[in-house]
Amino acid sequence: MVGIRRREFITLLGGTAAAWPLAARAQGGQRRRVAVMMNLPQSDPEAERAARALVTKLQELGWTEGRNIDFDFRKVGDQVDAFPGIIKQIAQLKPDITVARGGSVALALQRDAATIPVVFVQVTDPIGEGLVQTLARPGGNITGFMNFEPSMGTKWLEIAKEAAPTISRVAVLLYPQPALELTFKAIEEAASSFKVQATALRVHDAAQIERGIESFAADGADAGLIVLPHSVTNSNRELIASAALRYRLPTVCAYRFYVESGGLVSYGIDAIEPFRSAAIYVDRILRGAKPADLPVQAPTKFELVISLKAAKAIGLVVPPLLLARADEVIE
């Protein structure tokens, strides 16, 4: 079941009535509507955190739910086949703007609701995926914020080898889509310099994830795992962490929430920060800016998070130099 309108955010937004008149005057007193479509399951706490970050930042910018703005949240997981029907429902609500989490969501909105401005987050290759013409001048009715570039794959491989120097094989768990295939290619091309053999585990669902990891682990020891972010892998992160623990696979992921679910290391952006940035673009578009004139922004800050609990569980001693570089160590 997809997410529906979240009225409980009113309690979160209380106490900012003073900011309301300014935004109301700017918009002639018109109440605006923002639809948010996320590629996370309804029950995922990350979806709730992201929604709160977006709403809170818009509150700071003068937009208060129930007074001058309304929100409709759809948490759709990896139900790609259901996207057209969900987007039709969104279009019928006539939102002023949509916020899309994930490349597949952004592409579906661009295709099926092209007249509605879109601000995307967590997209890897917006040019390659056909979302924008250039990063500086997106063109069309869409802009947003990237999560990483395909070359990041090399960094994840470097961290995997540094965390577990004895590994000679690494499986790369990915949903087969162009941007993630490019990321795997970067890993594959760099693998020999780290004296590692890279294998792609292409998955579409939980069953394939479990079978793929089991099959890879059965081929021998001294192995590691890199998980590329996608709605399929994000939604199954607890399954991935459990399998990695069972087969004693040091695991490197893109987001902190993987480590919170039992993974060993994450290196990437704060997964919530782009929603605060997206709120700024939403505010500018609601006040008259065109998405085509707002540049797509690439991340500039990355955080390294290490779980000593996961390391202990798989019998790994994390090298002190890597621990010293960590932004956060989870005991």
Low-confidence stretches: 1-28
For the record, give the distance between the C-alpha atoms at the N and C termini, rounded to a whole number. Answer: 36 Å
**Multimeric status of the protein:** single chain
Q: How is the main sheet built?
A: 7 strands, mixed
**What percent of the residues sit in helical stretches (DSSP H or I)?**
40-55%
Task: Briefly characterize the structure.
Helices cover 40% and strands 19% of the residues. With 331 residues, the chain is α/β, with parallel strands linked by helices. The chain is elongated.
Care to describe what's here?
It is built from 14 helices and twelve strands. The chain is an alpha/beta fold and 331 residues long. It folds into two domains: 9-147 and 270-293, Rossmann fold (3-Layer(aba) Sandwich), CATH 3.40.50; 152-268 and 302-330, Rossmann fold (3-Layer(aba) Sandwich). Strands 7-6-8-9-10-11-12 form a seven-stranded mixed β-sheet, with helices on both faces. Strand 9, helix 11 and strand 10 (265-268) form a beta-alpha-beta unit. Helix 4 crosses helix 5. The chain starts with 8 loop residues before the first helix and ends with a strand.
